[in-house]
Specification:
It contains 4 helices and 9 strands, in the order ααβββββββαββα. The chain is α+β, with helices and mostly antiparallel strands.
């Protein structure tokens, strides 16, 4: 009498592999491919840097606004409670009026923030547009003051989208093939084996 254990074990393994592949294809990282959604590239966060002999300034443009970190250049220590005023140099505003904003010190995170709310709306809106934005920053601290200049480069989101990844489609096809093979093997054994 022969044991059916190896055949049953093979069926269980094939079904688990097939269902796992199906889950990865439909619910996992490839779900966007099946849903017909174009894959999104990681667009680099626009970063602004400026430095002088006195200060180093780094800024990141995020959905919450322009977040800035100010350090003293010689000691590389954070400069707290300074007054920062940013002015957009280029591209020049259409109305000829200077576009500027004051950064608010955030004590909890030891950084500065220019939020997109009024009165900073014009500056944040201008900086959010694709292109190169020249900025002048006036720094007034307890011990010194300085004028820094730098550029914020914002990439066009459409330029950053990648070409379609062929491997995702191949992995999805492999998942479908495994599912079909597992159910075919199950139907074959349910009928009593090969005929």
């Amino acid at each position: 009498m022969t044991s059916k254990f190896p055949v049953l074990w093979a069926q269980v393994v094939w079904r688990h592999l097939a269902m796992g592949s199906l889950w990865l294809g439909l619910c996992g990282p490839w779900a966007a491919v099946w849903a017909g959604v174009a894959p999104q590239a990681d667009v680099p966060v626009p970063v602004f840097t400026a430095q002088s002999e006195e200060f180093e300034l780094v800024g990141r443009l995020t959905p919450e606004g322009l977040r800035l970190w100010l350090d003293d250049a010689p000691g590389n220590r954070p400069v707290l409670n300074a007054q920062l005023t940013l002015e957009l140099v280029t591209p020049a505003p259409a109305n000829g009026q200077p576009v500027s904003a004051h950064a608010v010190f955030q004590a909890a995170s030891a950084d500065y923030l220019i939020s997109p709310s009024a009165p900073n709306t014009a500056l944040i809106t201008a900086l959010s547009q694709p292109g190169t934005h020249a900025l002048n920053v006036t720094v007034l601290s307890d011990t010194s003051s300085d004028l820094l200049a730098g550029e914020l480069v914002v990439e066009n989101r459409a330029d950053a989208l990648p070409a379609t990844d062929m491997s995702r489609g191949l992995l999805g096809a492999l998942g479908i093939a495994l599912v079909a093979g597992a159910f075919g093997l199950g139907r074959r054994s349910a009928r009593g084996g090969a005929r």
